[in-house]
Backbone:
């Protein structure tokens, strides 16, 4: 079974590498990462010149300013991009009829979905790594990457190495957050035949789910409540010395892994019963 | 027929959509090494049957077996020995013909480049294999569809309306290809079609389906033999002959032609008796000319005149 899943995943990644759409998504994320990095430098200055509040949250050539750049707003762009991408993943094959060429071969339906999910994860991983690297590069070029110190005393309380590690943790959390959203898109893609409608439905469905985090009764359980947790902790780490990853990190992974599991199980269940016409 | 001689069989295969039975209690047996025609008017249930045979949809009841393996219980082994095109073959337009075959081959466990070359050559796409599929004509896509169905060296290929949308020369090419696959490569070919001429010239065995139910199955020869055929009787006194024959229960639809001949429907094994009765009745018979029933006539009779299309490039078979 694993052999068949890996073969299907390889085929899926090959298709992704040849599709214009997947390249456009990467370009979109790169554009966003770099643009926001530059914007974070320009807009506060403009706002300040216009007499508004403006000003970067963190002044000076420190790592804190890097954090303020594109990395984290890119995660938002990546989320929407992945949702659109995964929403069309199965639906486009059903829509065009290419799915029949695959399903008449000796593979099982759940292997097909698991291969799609694995390909999505790999794509997601590449996307986050790329956007993190680019955002950091943009931020570092603009602000530099110094240690974080207390302005009054000059005492360093987060070193550059420490912050690099923290950014990696935050980016890893982004991978899981975005992947959970991608799995939602995959589930929608399994249910809807037309790829255009599948993408629209996935996007439309995402926002009410995101809104659920505002209700206390749902917020501990809904994955959208944890989407920017990593970024928030990282930001707090810049100003609060005692801030750590635990115990929220445990909750984050528990909720996200459970969400991915539920979405994939539902996708497999629905797809196994689906009639391919 | 021995079980080993049957490559694909269905047992009471049925599919119901709401209150309507798309296929009902279908029992097919496809002999190994045969070219089998699955005939029926549009909407008769041909594609639904194929989808059930390939596991794309689940039957409401009944089973389909490939090489004795239940397709829904053991799809990996059952589908491992079959290639198929279901309806219009669809490919990734942004990939070339060769890349599409490589991709599908990799899913089946990997296919060497030499096999891809061989298949492209077999279907006459060697020179266009490096072109993107989005630029292919319908005929080229059909041929690429056949190539992809052969990727894993199957024992059998299932082709759903393989000549749909093709011009006469394209249809002729596909027919030649099917004959080559069966005769030179020993592959069992299952063709569904509503084109009667196509099935008549290509297939040895046929099954006719109408309104989801099997109405006939056997070799083309057997089926037509059972059917009464038209007999032309040349005689000196057509009127007297018509009078004598009309009293016989086994002769029907007697019509006079040009004053010296009669046309009638009669079973093939009663022709000698027609001759004897006429001679005994004092009518001189100068010729008995059988006009065999065509598959088209047989089909129209079975389906009550439903729209099976006799079309195709008959002259170019």
Residues:
């Amino acid at each position: 079974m694993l052999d068949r899943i890996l073969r299907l995943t390889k085929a899926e990644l090959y298709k992704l590498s040849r599709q214009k759409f997947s390249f456009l998504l990467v370009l979109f994320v790169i554009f966003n990462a770099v643009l926001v990095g530059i914007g974070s430098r320009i807009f506060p200055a403009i706002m300040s010149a216009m007499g508004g509040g403006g000003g970067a949250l963190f002044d000076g050539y420190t790592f804190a300013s890097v954090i303020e750049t594109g990395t984290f707003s890119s995660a938002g762009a990546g989320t929407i991009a992945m949702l659109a991408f995964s929403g069309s993943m199965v639906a486009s094959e059903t829509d065009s009829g290419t799915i029949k060429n695959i399903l008449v071969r000796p593979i099982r339906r759940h292997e097909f979905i698991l291969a799609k999910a694995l390909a999505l994860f790999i794509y997601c991983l590449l996307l986050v790594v790329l956007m993190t690297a680019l955002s950091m590069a943009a931020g570092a070029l603009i602000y530099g990457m110094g240690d974080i110190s207390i302005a009054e005393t000059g005492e360093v309380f987060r070193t550059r190495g420490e912050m690099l590690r923290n950014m990696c943790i935050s980016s890893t959390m982004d991978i899981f957050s975005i992947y959970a959203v991608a799995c939602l898109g995959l589930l929608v893609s399994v249910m809807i035949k037309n790829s255009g409608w599948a993408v629209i439905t996935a996007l439309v469905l995402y926002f009410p789910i995101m809104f659920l985090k505002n209700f206390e009764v749902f917020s501990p359980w809904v994955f959208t409540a944890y989407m920017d947790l990593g970024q928030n902790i990282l930001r707090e780490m810049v100003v609060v010395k005692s801030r750590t990853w635990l115990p929220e990190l445990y909750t984050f992974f528990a909720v996200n892994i459970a969400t991915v599991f539920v979405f994939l199980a539902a996708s497999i269940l629905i797809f196994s019963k689906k009639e391919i016409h | 027929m021995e079980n080993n001689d049957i490559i694909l069989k269905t047992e009471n295969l049925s599919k119901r959509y709401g209150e309507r039975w798309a296929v009902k209690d279908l029992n097919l047996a496809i002999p190994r090494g045969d070219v089998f025609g699955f005939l029926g008017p549009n909407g008769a249930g041909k594609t639904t049957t194929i989808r059930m045979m390939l596991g794309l949809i689940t039957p409401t009841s009944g089973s389909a077996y490939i090489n004795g393996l239940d397709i829904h219980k053991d799809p990996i082994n059952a589908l491992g020995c079959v290639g198929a095109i279901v309806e219009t073959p669809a490919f990734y337009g942004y990939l070339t013909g060769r890349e599409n075959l490589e991709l599908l081959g990799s899913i089946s466990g990997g296919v060497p480049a030499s096999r891809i070359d061989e298949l492209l050559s077999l279907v006459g796409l060697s020179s266009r294999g490096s072109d993107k599929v989005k630029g292919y004509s319908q005929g080229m896509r059909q041929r690429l569809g056949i190539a992809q169905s052969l990727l894993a060296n199957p024992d059998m290929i299932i082709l759903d309306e393989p000549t749909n949308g093709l011009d006469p020369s394209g249809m002729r090419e596909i027919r030649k290809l099917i004959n080559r696959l069966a005769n030179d490569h020993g592959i069992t070919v299952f063709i569904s079609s509503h084109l009667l001429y196509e099935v008549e010239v290509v297939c040895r065995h046929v099954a006719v389906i109408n309104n989801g139910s099997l109405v006939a199955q056997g070799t083309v020869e057997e089926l037509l033999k059972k059917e009464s055929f038209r007999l032309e009787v040349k005689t000196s006194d057509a009127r007297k002959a018509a009078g004598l024959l009309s009293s016989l229960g086994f002769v029907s639809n007697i019509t006079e032609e040009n004053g010296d001949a009669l046309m009638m429907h009669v079973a093939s094994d009663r022709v000698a008796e027609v001759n004897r009765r006429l001679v005994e009745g004092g009518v001189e018979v100068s010729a008995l000319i059988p006009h065999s029933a065509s598959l088209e006539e047989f089909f129209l009779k079975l389906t009550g005149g439903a729209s099976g299309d006799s079309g195709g490039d008959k002259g170019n078979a």
